[in-house]
Amino acid sequence: MRRRDILLLLLVMLVAGASVDVALPWRTNQSPQSADPTPRPSVILEVTHTTFSIFENSENKYLYLRVLSDGSIECQSPFPIEKSESNERRSYRKILTQEEFKALQSLIDQPQILKIQPKYRAYVSVDTSSEWGIKLQHHGETQRIVVGMFSPGLAREFKQPYPKALTKLGCTVQKLRHEVVGDPAEHIDSDCKKVLQLE
Length: 199
What we know:
Blueprint: H1 3-23, E1 43-53, E2 58-68, E3 72-80, E4 89-95, H2 98-108, H3 111-114, E5 119-121, E6 128-138, E7 141-148, H4 152-157, H5 164-181, H6 190-195
Parallel strand pairs: 5-7
Antiparallel strand pairs: 1-2, 1-6, 2-3, 3-4, 6-7
């Protein structure tokens, strides 16, 4: 093979190698180290609280409780921060202990929880009303429950008692929010204290 042919062959190989090199994934602008391999925690339980005022024709909705798969809890204050133009609310956070998280997950996974009907409203108020919008995660499936003015005692008084599973779930939600917010006004229903053996 003549020298000119050898040089031509080397040039072709060099160009081909360069084109392959450019196409390699690590030639992109984003380095592998910049990608975050840790998945974000998912929501396992979320409760929104909405209050309706018929006379004022108004609605107030806020995050009552949210629990993530990493054990963190977040709540919001019922009303915006005073003089906040952006309608910003105060947030409260806490991390559950491993035992607390396992107990909550065990409650959510109970078969009786899946049997809870999508909507419960034991009574209707004339001027104002409120409801919980509950979302539960069951291995990728979302369960939604709406509870009007959660109160086991009043539901029983109106002869529309909650299922035991709903009472236990609602009382647990109340207890968790009470522990996170730490405000005496965020009381725990008297029936819930008995259900959760807090008395």
